[in-house]
Each structure stands twice: as structure tokens, then as C-alpha cells.
């Protein structure tokens, strides 16, 4: 549960905007130009948690 909470927190801090239930006082507006993306979270070869942006609509079929 701790790892899951850390993943959510890191993704929330990475997203520099407010959207739906995700609201940030420091970024109170939506920024569709830069943040119409999925945030992918994965583990690299050293075991570190990594986050990357993937534009919506680019998911492989």
C-alpha cells in the first residue's frame, strides 16, 4: 500500500495542472496543451520508480 501511495503522490506532483478531482493550489487551471497525457510509472533496471508522459491517443492497439 505504501508503494501504491508513493506512485499516486509522485504522479500528482509531476502533473503541473488541475484536472477533475486532481486540484493543485499552485496550478489551479487545466493545461490541455502540455498535460493531455497519461503518466506511466515503471521500474527501471536498478529498481527505481520512473515516471513518463504518454500523450492520450497513442496507446498501442
From TrEMBL:
Fumarate reductase/succinate dehydrogenase flavoprotein-like C-terminal domain: residues covered: 1-56
GO molecular function: oxidoreductase activity
Domain of life of the source: Bacteria
Name recorded for this polypeptide: Fumarate reductase/succinate dehydrogenase flavoprotein-like C-terminal domain-containing protein
Organism: Desulfoplanes formicivorans
Amino acid at each position: 500500500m505504501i508503494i501504491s501511495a508513493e506512485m499516486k503522490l509522485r504522479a500528482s506532483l509531476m502533473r503541473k495542472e488541475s484536472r477533475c478531482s486532481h486540484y493543485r493550489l499552485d496550478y489551479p487551471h487545466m493545461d490541455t496543451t502540455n498535460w493531455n497525457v497519461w503518466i506511466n510509472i515503471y521500474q527501471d533496471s536498478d529498481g527505481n520508480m520512473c515516471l513518463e508522459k504518454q500523450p492520450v491517443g497513442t496507446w498501442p492497439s
